[in-house]
Amino acid sequence: MNSSYEDGLSTFVTDRIHSIHGRSSRGASDGKAILSALRRGQDIGVNPNLWLDTLDLPERYQGLGDTPSAAEQGAFAALTLWSLHQQSRTSLVHQSGARFGAQAAALVQRTGRLGAVQRRLYALSMASNINAVLAHGRGIVSQLRDHNLDVDYGQFAVDISNLLRPKFAPGTRVRWGRDFATNTNPTNTHK
Asked: Is 8 part of any domain?
């Protein structure tokens, strides 16, 4: 995958998060309304109030015709799951560099529930459409929220975009799996 392509998508999502969070934390009604609408998890493009924050990606990321691209779906899923994670929080839950697999491992360390977290991460990593991503993502993101673990949602958008493209999905699974395994296994002496 082209690094500038991934960087651009990550930057778009990160900028949107900072914009929405900034408006919401200043008490702007549109920021709070956007967070609320994103949490409802409607299909991409359905809610006109979200178009400006979710569908105005640069042209290189846009789908053709009526079908959203993998990048549009990845950005939408990341923003939707971030809004769930951000709910009732004043400090920003987006943290640059907080890779999803490593944060899932941190969740295991905090909860001691390796099997449950691993099953959720596996189910999300095998999702092949946006509805499955959102369904499985909600479960693990809710747990991350409950245990105060932040995520790099810009990178998460790239990961989801890649999961939705069969050619790139295995690479995302390897990164998530590697981050999860190397940060979960207490006998790992190769760090």
From this structure: yes
